[in-house]
Amino acid sequence: MSHFISHLKAFNRKERFILLKRTLGQDTFSLDSSFRKEVECLIDCSVPDDAFVAMDYHLNWLHIASKYRNTSLPSSVPNDLFPPDQKAQLNQQDIDLLVAFQDGSDERIILVEAKADTSWDNSQLCAKAIRLDYIFRDSDKGIRPHFLLMSPSRSRKVETECWPDWMMPDKPLHIELPLGDELIKIEGLVDGQRILWERERGDGRRVWKKRG
Fold first, then answer.
1. Residue 189 CB neighbour total at 10 angstroms
2. Torsion on CA atoms 18, 21, 22, 27, rounded to nearest 10
3. pTM of the complete model
4. How far is 101 from 52, CA to CA, in rounded Å?
5. What is the per-residue pLDDT across 124-175, written as a single tens digit (0 to 9) for each?
6. Which distant-in-sequence residues (6+ apart) come within 8 Å of 108 by Cβ?
7. What CA–CA distance (Å, rounded) separates 177 from 184?
8. Torsion over CA of 142, 88, 83 and 57, rounded to 10 degrees?
9. Contacts of 131 (CB under 8 A, 6+ apart)
10. Which residues pair with 108 in a beta bridge?
């Protein structure tokens, strides 16, 4: 195992992962084969079934792991490793899904941002793009990053002016995130009551409609 992936695993201490590991009896997540195939088509590279997978992965962890890709972790890291002009609080910036694996002498890392019902926040995406580009420019060479969006449908409102070229080879890479039918959400307040909405098909697509 490379230093980089070993570092990524060592930092992966999210409560959600620890809880799932305990309750599901698994030491790591395994990627679905159909998802792997979709990703492979987008990045033109095979994704092994034993790739490292993490959720809600802090960008601070990614930054340190990539900075010390070829060495063991030090006992401390210099404070100037992190950009002083970063507007967002660094300890709150994370990536929804992270996949990493060895590819010859390099490491590939796939970063996935997902949205289900809500729309993309372009200011948040821009801040994250700037930070990610800073991380990979600052890291040892040999890490090949990819950035994917996942949502029920591709958005036309995502602004990419501040995205580096590696995040968007042509247009933002996108994989559908199916929500399925038979879902219910609570929304709106009418006469002191919250209205229930059901997800169902409408005009060939899935939409939310008032229940009943």
1. 9
2. -120
3. 0.84
4. 6
5. 999 999 999 989 987 777 999 999 999 988 888 999 999 999 998 888 999 9
6. 43, 45, 47, 100, 101, 102, 143, 144, 145, 146
7. 17
8. -30
9. 59, 83, 86, 88, 93
10. 101, 144
Tokens of 144: 């090949």
Residue 147 token pair: 């950035």
Domain range annotation of the chain: 3-178, 180-212
Rounded Cα–Cα distance for residues 19 and 43 (Å): 31
Q: What is the CA 74 to chain-centroid distance, rounded?
A: 26
